[in-house]
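Hi Y.,

Following your request, here is the sequence exactly as I used it, all 300 residues.
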Amino acid sequence: MKRFEYLCAPDIVGITQTCKAALKKYAEQILFYDTATKNQEELILRVKDADAILINWKTSIDKKVIDASLKLKYIGVCGTNTAQIDLESARERGIQISTVKNYTDFATVEFIFQQILNYYKGNSLHDNIPNNITNITRELYGKNLGIVGLGVIGEKVAQMGLAFGMQVFYYSRTRKEKVEEQGVTYLPLQELLKHSEVISFHVPPFTQAVTKEDLRKLNKGTLLINTCVGAIFNEEELREYILLEKSTVIFDRVAGMFYSSSITKLPHMVVLPTMAGITVESVQRLDGSVLANVRKYLNN
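Below is the corresponding structure, written out as tokens. Let me know if you'd prefer a different format.
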């Protein structure tokens, strides 16, 4: 099997020490940085001599970085998102890119339903989530669940909602006939927002999910859950909605990274310290896929 001359991870990539040790057999030299790059100049200094790099979803590999990395042949994304990579420049150079798909799916779905159950069962430990329940709780059965974006995770959320006996609606850029056959109902976006009691967002990274006009369609008291990458809401529009309607909005840590403390500390707004998709098991899947991607490249 071929080996890389120099494999570098310029940022923290989320794989385990076991995986890092296993990767040593695939490179003459290997270096994992344990601090994030502060700017593009530092990133270039770290990767310019590497023929292979491992990056996270935040590492920006643009044309300038690619042009400065004359030996670069392989980019292994320790995650799913490639929005941070100049794909055209990489193609022009013949650089191969691999990603890890679906490794966080189960963890993310469980996280979402943990929040829904905490909300309806009065189990939340967060001061910003109102607990109006005294000696009686509420059921998920019969509640209206709206899903904005029906990719792989969105479909799993829909299936879980059906299992709880919820009425499940979805909005997506394309209709999903097989999902509709299972009992999930397609609605235009504003109709979904109007009729849902719980809404979970699953749009592509850095995509604005709703406009100010859309937010006006939401009912007072709607529970919004966001585990997406990027600012899918306009911050000022979301602030206005929260203050007027007093609905509960829950972000995981990644989603919360894209908003200022002036909104994340509002009443009824919660940014949890955990990342929805990161569990012991999902990291194990990440490790396995990163190693498999490296082996596949070197064997070809």
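The domain at 4-101+280-299 is CATH 3.40.50.720 (Rossmann fold).

Thanks again,
Q.
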